[in-house]
Amino acid sequence: MSSNSITSTGGQPELRGAVSRFFKARTTTLLLINLAVAAILAVLQPRFLDPQNLSSLFMGMTYDLLMAMGMTLVLILGGIDLSVGSVLGLTGVVVTMLLSNHIMSTAIPVPVAILAGLLVAATCGALNGIGVAKLKIAPFIVTLGMFAIARGLATVLTSGWYISGLPDAYLTIGQGTVFGLPFPIIVTLLILLGFNYLLKHWKPLNQAFYIGQNPDAAALSGIRVTLVTFFGYVISSLLAGVAAVFMTSRLAMGFFQFGLGSELNAIAGAVIGGASFAGGSGDLLGTFLGVLLLALIRNGFVLLNGSPNWQGIVSGAIVFLAIAVDAYRRRNETRD
Fold first, then answer.
1. Which residues are CB-neighbours of 179 under 8 A, at least 6 positions away?
2. DSSP letter at 214?
3. Is 254 helix (H, G, I), strand (E, B) or coil?
4. Which helix (DSSP H) or strand (DSSP E) does residue 182 occupy?
5. How many Å apart are CA 140 and CA 314, to the nearest integer?
6. Lowest mean pLDDT among 5-19, 40-54, 93-107, 180-194
7. Beta strand pairing status for 177-178 and 181-182?
8. HSE on the CB side for 133, CA within 13 Å?
């Protein structure tokens, strides 16, 4: 009897500690904020809970989430990728040009066209990676250059025109459903779960945290800093390429301006979710919640007939607040 009593008493502090850590966690705070925003929208506009609206909301955030996942990895490494939106646009143009029956006289198989587009995206990421990891050029400069190059190539290839005439097999990728859920949502969630697991448990990816905290110390400990950083930028561009496939197949066309401004949404979702510009921190589940919060705000403006001009202001204010909170938290950690 006495032994059981001691065990029970000893377990209570552990339980209280676990509960305290849960409610102090950033992801928990974000989850509660998202639930609060969703509840307010449901009260103000009952149409918010319509399955069609919810499906549109999650479908709309799919593209930003894919790019935000790659952005989170790059931020963990202590870098930044300003080219993801332009890489999305260029990848979408390449894939749709290869598939369009208005452009190509010979039909290109859908898998081949997608592979070619993803190869273009990976090449953009590889060039970013070489510039940052090998040549030691500031990530801001390298990816800003790729931002201009990729968008310029997409513009030159299309001359500013839309690309249509895509085969049904390709449109099914973005418009098909499984058990009522759009295929892109299912694939994106699977990528999120798999990527999150690998980032936490697979050594080559997990080393990104050590590189972001102190690249010199990471190199001295045997971590291949150049290689990990290189592949971080390749992964970021590849995820933008996947977003391009989903976007162009969903909208049944390619356009050189697709992805315009998406890099800001990706950065916002990652930073709100816990990634830091100082490197060494980030969480993909937090990134998901950060992207979801921005999607809820955009959806709320649409449902409540709010001026679209205010969307950017509100989103920007949230990002500014997230950066300020992160800077305050890091300053306190350094002081401690």
1. none
2. -
3. strand
4. strand 181-182
5. 25
6. 5-19
7. antiparallel
8. 24
- Identify the residue whose tokens are 């971590």: 223
Q: In 3D, which of 103, 117, 251 has the Cα closest to residue 184?
A: 251
Tell me the per-residue pLDDT of 273-309, one tens digit each, with 9 for 90 and over. 888 888 888 999 999 999 999 999 889 888 888 776 7
Q: What is the DSSP letter of 132?
A: I
Instruction: Tell me the longest C-alpha to C-alpha distance in the chain.
Output: 85
Structural domains in the chain, sorted by start: 53-330 (1.10.3470)
Query: Are 118 and 91 in contact, with CB atoms under 8 Å apart?
Result: yes
Structure tokens at 196: 């999150």
Q: CA–CA separation, 232 vs 238, rounded Å?
A: 10
Cβ proximity of 162 and 253 under 8 Å = yes
| Closest to 29 measured CA to CA, from 199, 301, 272, 268 | 272
Burial of residue 259 (number of CB atoms within 10 Å: 0-12, 13-18, 19+) = buried
Rg over CA atoms, the chain: 22
pTM: 0.89
